[in-house]
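Reviewers of the previous submission asked for a worked example of the structure-prediction workflow described in the proposal, so we include one complete record here. The input consisted solely of the amino acid sequence. No template or homolog information was supplied to the procedure at any stage.
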Amino acid sequence: MEGEPRGTLGPEPDLAKEAAELDASPEMLEYRAEAAIIRGESEEVQADLAAGRKIEDIQADAAAAAEQRRQRRYLIRALLRSPTFMIGLVIVLFWVFMALFSTFITQSPTAVDAAAILKAPSAAHWFGTDDLGRDVFARTMAGARTVLVIAPLATLLALLWGGIIGLVSGFYRGLTDEIIMRLIDVLLALPIIITSILILSLLGKSVAIVIIVIGALFTPVVSRTVRAAVIGEREREYVMAARLRGERSAFVMAREILPNITQPITVEGTIRLGYAVFTAATLSFLGFGLQPPSPDWGLTIATERSFLQIAAWTVLFPALALASLVVAVNLITDGLGRTFSR
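From that input alone, the workflow returned the following structure tokens.
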């Protein structure tokens, strides 16, 4: 009848409240984030369209990039939850901090005090003093500087050279692979320490030469790891698609294969870093690294070992520092390996 209120199915919906809830939902937030990324990359998209690329290819690349970003976020969260990785990272960061700032928080590592020769650890000298009266704590903290310059740079060189060799060998295969791998086998047969000593005796003992020698001697091992990873990727669909598009081999290796083998390369790099730390210290111990009065750990152990029975602290603390750094790098390697294997 006229004048009577129409029947309702329930209370009037609160449209403003529902809109606010929808606006704050995780799905809407993710949609907005992706839209912002698309808007931020609009110039690149327009450039791709102007270059003649199909919209399907552009969408596929955008989806692949979004997936890579999600994987990176997942890996970072997984690593932050890994006790093994975090313990190793904290120790490494401690030594990095000491390498950079120890001169501001300790006394000079080369300062000599003739009145405090071979003093045992005390409040004045936490790690005691050496045969020249130098503070062992200051020298131990400063000793991280040289090893954290030599080892990472040598590792980066090994990753660069080994990565290039492994990419070329694993991608082309055939005769190219056979020639490269036979040369690699010859280099792997050479003992690292003895070969390093021979090369350093010939070329000199500067820091730059030590870095280059260690990097060159670790290159064969890295190249074999990269080659194995490339062989596992070269027959996948995305590589075949890039070849069908007419992409050059260098582009396929650098832009298609390399981003997909970063995980084994990262693990291999941390493994080589631990070996590089040990190798650099060993060369210094044998007298083929830095020279006195450098506080380098290997050199300090070599020069102070004659006082081991009467002043063990002069050798003990540098040796413990070296061991802690190597163990920390191995913990990081273990954490990375477990995370990547999930």
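The CA atoms of residues 297 and 318 lie 5 Å apart. We consider this example representative of the routine output the project will generate in years two and three.
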